[in-house]
Amino acid sequence: MAANQGLKIAVIGGGSSYTPELIEGFILHHKELPVTELWLVDIEPGLRKLNIVGSLAKRMVQESGLPITVHLTTDRREAIAGADFVSTQIRVGMLDARARDESIPLKYGVIGQETTGPGGMMKALRTIPVILDICRDIEELAPDAWLLNFTNPAGMVTEAVLRYSKVKSIGLCNAPIGLIKQVSAKYNAAPDRIYAEFVGLNHLHWITRIDVEGEDKLDEMLADTAGYSAKNVPAREWNPEFLQSLRALPSYYLKYFYMTDAMLEEQLTSAKQGANRAEVVKRVEEELFEIYSNLELKEKPKQLEQRGGAFYSEAAVNLMRSLHNGTNDIQTLNVANRSILSFLPEDASIEVNCVVTKTGPLPLPLTRNPPMAKGLIHAVKTYEQLAIDAAVTGDRSLAIQALAHHPLVPSVEVAITMLDEMLEANREYLPNFFAGKEAASAAAE
Amino acid sequence: MAANQGLKIAVIGGGSSYTPELIEGFILHHKELPVTELWLVDIEPGLRKLNIVGSLAKRMVQESGLPITVHLTTDRREAIAGADFVSTQIRVGMLDARARDESIPLKYGVIGQETTGPGGMMKALRTIPVILDICRDIEELAPDAWLLNFTNPAGMVTEAVLRYSKVKSIGLCNAPIGLIKQVSAKYNAAPDRIYAEFVGLNHLHWITRIDVEGEDKLDEMLADTAGYSAKNVPAREWNPEFLQSLRALPSYYLKYFYMTDAMLEEQLTSAKQGANRAEVVKRVEEELFEIYSNLELKEKPKQLEQRGGAFYSEAAVNLMRSLHNGTNDIQTLNVANRSILSFLPEDASIEVNCVVTKTGPLPLPLTRNPPMAKGLIHAVKTYEQLAIDAAVTGDRSLAIQALAHHPLVPSVEVAITMLDEMLEANREYLPNFFAGKEAASAAAE
Amino acid sequence: MAANQGLKIAVIGGGSSYTPELIEGFILHHKELPVTELWLVDIEPGLRKLNIVGSLAKRMVQESGLPITVHLTTDRREAIAGADFVSTQIRVGMLDARARDESIPLKYGVIGQETTGPGGMMKALRTIPVILDICRDIEELAPDAWLLNFTNPAGMVTEAVLRYSKVKSIGLCNAPIGLIKQVSAKYNAAPDRIYAEFVGLNHLHWITRIDVEGEDKLDEMLADTAGYSAKNVPAREWNPEFLQSLRALPSYYLKYFYMTDAMLEEQLTSAKQGANRAEVVKRVEEELFEIYSNLELKEKPKQLEQRGGAFYSEAAVNLMRSLHNGTNDIQTLNVANRSILSFLPEDASIEVNCVVTKTGPLPLPLTRNPPMAKGLIHAVKTYEQLAIDAAVTGDRSLAIQALAHHPLVPSVEVAITMLDEMLEANREYLPNFFAGKEAASAAAE
Amino acid sequence: MAANQGLKIAVIGGGSSYTPELIEGFILHHKELPVTELWLVDIEPGLRKLNIVGSLAKRMVQESGLPITVHLTTDRREAIAGADFVSTQIRVGMLDARARDESIPLKYGVIGQETTGPGGMMKALRTIPVILDICRDIEELAPDAWLLNFTNPAGMVTEAVLRYSKVKSIGLCNAPIGLIKQVSAKYNAAPDRIYAEFVGLNHLHWITRIDVEGEDKLDEMLADTAGYSAKNVPAREWNPEFLQSLRALPSYYLKYFYMTDAMLEEQLTSAKQGANRAEVVKRVEEELFEIYSNLELKEKPKQLEQRGGAFYSEAAVNLMRSLHNGTNDIQTLNVANRSILSFLPEDASIEVNCVVTKTGPLPLPLTRNPPMAKGLIHAVKTYEQLAIDAAVTGDRSLAIQALAHHPLVPSVEVAITMLDEMLEANREYLPNFFAGKEAASAAAE
């Protein structure tokens, strides 16, 4: 960005139902984040949604009276060229692929979760090559741009970018900001007066310290197990004795690891009843696009907040503002480990508090170590690294090793059989594995 | 040992059925390991076995004509005082406790394995305080003695000694020597012309390199999956594609982790048929002691070799010889990690090749890293460290955390419920957990 | 501090000539740092100065109209009890000792510098036991207080507190804030728009990055060698070719290491002319106290700024404000290394950028490594650690090793001979070395 | 080497006066090291010496009656092709260059030592590119060969090969074997009953443990300061108080660092008297070649032992035997650090005890750390790494940084001025620095 110009932002997967939240953020914070060009990009199959949501975006901007131009395009390179920020929220294979990611493992008695579960590995195999393609464009057309990645599995995608491209990249999740808001509400304290220390991986973090206005509230939070849940993970309660001896608040996604039997049963029951999370999301999305199509609508509709991904856009806008202004404030992000977790490689992505400087986030050393969590973090990270390498190389051996070492997979035999079925089902999205095949296509998340 | 005197050796748990093998070793290698005093120690409840096996030991020594005096005693301190080597092969709670270690987890659908499984944790809780008591005696009465630990779970027991005493200690397992013998037979090569690189934990190791007379035979060994099995682990075959992509030969105990579903099923089936490993061992032992009672027997009986612990005594005698003579040869031992595995603490016990110097074993750096294994090693080590600390402190919170983070335990709820039952069943052996209770008693392994 | 009360601050060495600057800071920033009790402590020999400066402090506060009570005392414990912040600016042995620190080494052809030079070691031997005594009081009477240490050698004193007490301590230097101000003036940019990355030890740091409003200005700064100097280090210019190949701006104290021959010659010349730094400082101090004694004076006099320690108080007040309010801003401080410099122990004190959270400073990972500096940093830190241990134990062997490994000392023989003379000259201040001797006495810095 | 064939050995710099010792070694140990082809290589200017020493070699072999063929050649590639071992003992610029290495620094009041001193840096700049050229040949013509490097500065040369080639390389020095022999003689104990723990860099090591037949003799050795000296370093005695507090025996080369003033004075005095080490060596060499020319001589002459490099060939033959037979014995070698010294990079060369396996040496963890030595080791290694990179790239900036950070250089100004003179004096041997210049030529060491 030239000093006297506004910012150019490219949103890959711009047809996402989340986009109106992002637009709202750009409008509200225009002063500190002077966006002048906003490019919403999507692929052909996502064009209908892009037009609906893009049209709403234009109405929202017009209503605000701000000098923001909204561009809708399927030309990714045009959108990226010269951008200051690129964000990605894509879903390679769209919701149908997600349905498969979640249902195939269940056949084998394995939790079919789309981020930290085996389903997440298939998502990674489909997604990482597409993201790295986008990175090639950024390296060429906007080498100084920041890539803000929301695409799940966000931890693995971020690490793939760190290790296999030169793009400056940060992974984002809405869980940390959600926890801060929950604590803020519980104690009626301003968010910037809360210091919550996160450690772990994306969707696999522990919170080891919660200071509210300088007072340690961790024990109180641990005692309030009922209050700590999330819309997109079934709300089983934590065992209080376990939490107290853990001395940390686990991410709600950790229920897949700490309550494996119950979570699996719940998924199997839902599946029998014909429901799965992908289907639910699909219905919610359709309703949202119906609402967005209403030409009278000129603001983010309330219903969007029930979508499950609340705060995603707030997280994104916060991060862009801090990077743009060098505010040096603290945010929880997915970045390279450096030496924060001494047992992981320096280039492993971790989820950790960072101070956001003008030239990027610097991860903060931990004030409290979670000794119980080390092994699980390392086990999942080992799986993740094998899966990333499998995605990049298309090497079936690595995919076998990744799945066989996933803590939720009960045996090598299940790993291999399940992998074969999952690979076959995703054949069209895995050119690295099935050479000579058509390229993957990615619609908005 | 004064320069012109022979060596004094104390065997804690001397009434073990393994003892005749040890006696045979001392007789065969008397020249390089000039034992003059051999003390077999056991507790009151083990006195019958001690007398039977001790009597056989005396006959064996007499037959050899060597100047070795065999002492049988229940006075541990007398045996330890001034000893050059102390070896332990004890079983706190005897085989009945093992039966419970293996059967209780099965009720909860969890593998009941006595070393790396949850059963091993109960064994650790019973055993570690007894071993540390022995260490207090060694610190006082034989501060320069080496403690050779065969007591399972050998990795955890060794680490407990490393972290909670000043005794110089080494953990031993027969698996590595077994692998060398197998390779030696397969290739008709002398054992000292084979270099096999072990890495991992006790009963949780991988072999990443097998050189036979300077030639790399790993791939051949990986291809020969049928040949690689062990008497005390059911002989399921490894998936060849998995082994080849792993690029390492896993310990047969790793079947509990890599074939969890099948191994569990097998255990459940056996249990239904009224059999369990503890019962089998019990019967074998009774037969052995019957044989030992034959006054005409003056040598190690052949039947002992089918006991499953073959090579234990060979490993022990080898190690004592090397320490005594400072031979600087290479053996696979359980020792402090130092910086061999960079992701584990320096005082974690690992199983690794060491050069045995006069002043102790020095672990050798790895020439090949097993990247796939890191996570599993770390996960099990994390569990082990929590369990060791639980054993030393009697802290129920640590026991909960240990079990909840064990890779074979499916949930926190199962961990806590199962733990409660296992603690209750072992009440008399857990004075640290049940204050004011009687001290634990330990008979021979 | 109770929520509705003001802060209590204890200044050990309150009779220092720097104190008026501190008072000014408390007055200017009373809103964010609501000090209500200010205790200036000194020892008997410093009472005259304490009264002069304390009287000025009271006049300054009265003029401000703020509700701050100023207490003057020789009772350190009364001052510390319940304090929120304790700052130390003491000089054990006063300026006469400094004169000896600087002159004795010169006899042996060694630079007599009072912080990073051998003179600094004598200062450390005298000072560390006194500071640790103060820490014992803080541990007992104000366990939650922050200790802000300005006492030189600040790096070694801070590390001694980190390793030998439980007090929460931070070391401070005015050099980093000075550099920021210089850059700010040069580029006419607000200080909070400058990010300068410091790495190294106290008085031994390198600046590897200087961003001004997001633009990299390091090369410009490296080219402007004339502009980069300091009042209390002779202004020799840096060799431009050296600076450019170093890719970092060295602290001006590094001239003692990078221009050893010239700096030594300069000191020898000055010494011949009867001047030394200690004498100069002594004269400046006397003039200042004359000025302070003027009862009409009700503000910090301009002349104080020429004292050489400009910005010390600004640094102190900034740090207290940030700790009190949890502002999470970035300051350059002396704190425990953790894993920032991977080649140093975790508890080594280093000088590094930190984000100042409510519960203390967290050191920020480096964005640029200074590969050339590693060896020198490690050499000086090795000396420092030996010297700290010598100070705490009074072990002459450690003092010999410290001095013999100091990069500015040309040989073991010089180290031992010089040490003997320095120890003897400081006998009354070294009770750890000369048992049965009188306790050291410390007047204000 | 095919299984039924003998070994081929190439000696680069075969015209060295040391060669007869090597021949003697090959003859004495032919059984364990069945050499059949021995190629002595040298460059044109060294042809006279090569012929003299080669002719002696042939007479020695003939006298032995062994089936060894000795080839003399200036065709390096022919000698290397298919070799099992390549050893290098070259001197780029020959003794005249050494004379300059040692005399130029003295002009600037700097010790002119040819290995760890600034003279060693010039030697490194001349030598490393030639060694890397040899490595290119080995990579192509004998990729499985071991390169045994005796060429000084052996630590830097070895590290250059580790970092800039794929050749399997080990650096060797005669100092460790010399220490063992000295201890062996003092205690009348067999060398294999002595365990001396070395740690540090080539010519910069400390011995932290000396066990003789299992007994700790370090203190006795430290007390016997007179006994510990070497022919090629002036025999100043160590200060006993220093040694005892160091708790380690320093290499005699460490006198340049621990007695800098005295060693410099000695060098200056010698220089005034017209003597320097290079000149002395030159005279000794001439005498040796006179002796070698005697056609009646058919064995290694006694006079060779006074040359200063005693045991070099013994070290070489020992190492080849152990590698060839996989004896797993312990030798002190220059190898990659891995994680032995945690503060150095993994690929830094260090001098350390190794167990020599069939597939190479594995460095042994330290049983005792030398905490006082860390800083100096790191400072010298930092200089070494900069100098290696300067040699490879011809980057003057790196050479400036290397010399400016050398602990024996008093200032940046001296570093730059001295460097300029040394570069100019070596112009013909530094094609990387003076592009378009003739290639360097290397005669035997």
From TrEMBL, chains A, B, C, D:
Q: How is the cofactor bound?
A: Binds 1 NAD(+) per subunit.
Major enzyme class: hydrolase
The text of the family note is:
Belongs to the glycosyl hydrolase 4 family.
Q: Which InterPro entries is this protein grouped with? A: GlycHydrolase_4_CS, Glyco_hydro_4, Glyco_hydro_4_C, Lactate_DH/Glyco_Ohase_4_C, NAD(P)-bd_dom_sf
Q: What is its EC number?
A: 3.2.1.86
Name of protein: 6-phospho-beta-glucosidase
Identify which cofactors the protein needs according to its UniProt entry: NAD(+)
Please name the PANTHER family in this protein's record.
6-PHOSPHO-BETA-GLUCOSIDASE, 6-PHOSPHO-BETA-GLUCOSIDASE-RELATED
Task: Name any one GO molecular function.
Answer: 6-phospho-beta-glucosidase activity
Which organism is the protein's source? Paenibacillus auburnensis
Whether Amino-acid biosynthesis counts among this entry's keywords is no
* Keywords noted in UniProt: Glycosidase, Hydrolase, Manganese, Metal-binding, NAD
Q: Which domain of life is it from?
A: Bacteria
Which residues are in the Glycosyl hydrolase family 4 C-terminal domain?
198-409
